[in-house]
Amino acid sequence: MKLVIREAGACSDVGRLRQSNEDALLLSEPVFAVADGMGGARAGEVASAMAVAALHGFDGGEQQLAQTIEDVNLRIHSASRNDASLLGMGTTITAAMIDGEALVLAHVGDSRAYVLRAGQLRQLTDDHSLVGELIRRGALTPEEAERHPQRSVITRALGADEAVDVDVLRVPLETGDLILLCSDGLTGMVSDAELARILRGGGELNQLAQQLVLAANQAGGEDNITAVLLRIGSRREEDTEPERPPIVILPATALADDAPRASAADRAAARGDRGRGRLLAIVGGVAAIGIVVAVAVAIGLQWAHFIGATRDGRVAIYQGLPFELTSDVTLYRAVQITDVPTAALSEEQRSSLLDQRIGSLGSAEGRITQLTSSSPWLRLPPSAP
Fold first, then answer.
1. What are the C-alpha distances in Å from 12 to residues 15, 54, 131, 250?
2. SS3 letters across 225-270
3. Fewer Cβ in 10 A, N or C end of the chain?
4. How many CA atoms lie within 13 A of 364 on its CB side?
5. Under CATH, what is the fold of the domain 2-272?
6. Nearest alpha-carbon partner for 23 in 35, 9, 32
């Protein structure tokens, strides 16, 4: 039998004390990840977004996974050195994928991976933090570490140096396992015992993730909080393909209040490519109006261009009008696909760039050139042939 991800869910929140959310998450089978950014201004948001964007569309084994993380570490480090506004930025990363009957984890920093099996919760990753090292040396107990004044000091992160050591683990899986990936905004507020209690309650994974975030906020919400949950199942070769989790690649957005709401993963999956709009077709009407509309559409399809996002999370220029007649029939087509990942854009950049503004091809190209000139770190290196 082959093990698969039967269900995925996620939730993220800015917390009670922070002004912005520098966590990012990725739900894009076969890779799932949590990144916790750090740095001044919005630099932490940039670093975490770059980390998860690098893993989107990943296709390889555990060595390639580690290499991808090492590569993005260098890009984050270079960006922080070449752009004064990004100086000192870095991020954790905890990424997971299934390989046969094992969970492969690639890990840097103090975000964590857990497995809940038969009601028992077990931490899979080691914290690359000052208190984590002290615990491993026997100088601190886990209970003392929770109260240590330097418990937030990490000893390894992406972007800190040109090279980074990536922990790679293979963990045997069983059907029914529940995997939790999370930032320290969750584990710093909620004990392992309480995490286990919530997860044992069962239910739909997006709702479980929201309950975890709510518990962290109720305990003080001192940091950004992100949780990604994966339910492991089995599939025989003759079985039909299970429903795949939604593709989500984003800097995680926030929940505003105490009450659980739709998670960032829910909202992003619901938007998808539908953000370019839908054309409401009115059946019937006057024939002359139909002719006028047809002429207008024909002109628009030739001249009009707008900027949007591809299904695999890249900024692109589309020719035509941003409408869909059906899920398979659209009034636009991609004419240029860039190497700029939408996940690495700031909220302001996404709002201004992906606004469906209609213009000429030249104006669309000019807007993207202006963006990459002011933020050169957005350009990914060309893929190897």
1. 9, 20, 25, 11
2. EEEEEEEEEEECCCCCCCCCCCCEEEECCCCCCCCCCCCHHHHHHH
3. C
4. 25
5. Phosphatase 2c; domain 1 (3.60.40)
6. 35
Q: Answer left, alpha or beta for residue 296, where phi above 0 means left and psi between -120 and 50 means alpha.
A: alpha
**Cα dist. 162→56, 69, 90, 121, 176 in Å?**
22, 12, 12, 35, 40
Pairing between β-strand 23-28 and β-strand 90-91 as defined by DSSP bridges: unpaired
Is 320 within 8 Å of 354 (Cβ atoms)? no
Structure tokens belonging to residue 72: 């993005």
Residue owning tokens 């770059």: 50
Positive or negative, the CA dihedral 289, 317, 306, 313 is positive
Question: Residues spanned by CATH 3.60.40.10 within the chain?
Answer: 2-272
The whole model's pTM is what? 0.67
Q: Residue 23 in contact with residue 12, Cβ under 8 Å?
A: yes
Element containing residue 305 per DSSP (H, E)? strand 305-309
Instruction: Tell me the residue length of the chain.
Output: 385
Q: List per-residue pLDDT tens for the chain, 385 residues long.
A: 689 999 999 999 999 999 889 999 999 889 999 999 998 656 898 999 899 989 988 999 999 999 999 999 999 999 998 888 888 899 999 999 999 999 999 999 999 999 999 999 999 999 987 656 666 666 666 655 565 555 556 788 999 899 999 999 999 999 999 999 999 999 999 999 999 999 999 999 999 999 999 999 999 999 999 999 999 998 754 455 555 555 555 554 433 333 333 333 333 333 333 333 332 232 333 333 444 444 444 444 566 888 888 766 778 898 877 766 555 566 678 888 887 777 677 767 777 777 778 888 888 888 888 877 777 666 554 433 3
Start-to-end CA distance of the chain, whole Å, equals 35
Angle value at C-alpha 156, between 65 and 191, nearest 5 degrees: 95
Q: Give the whole-angstrom CA distance, residue 180 versus residue 212.
A: 10
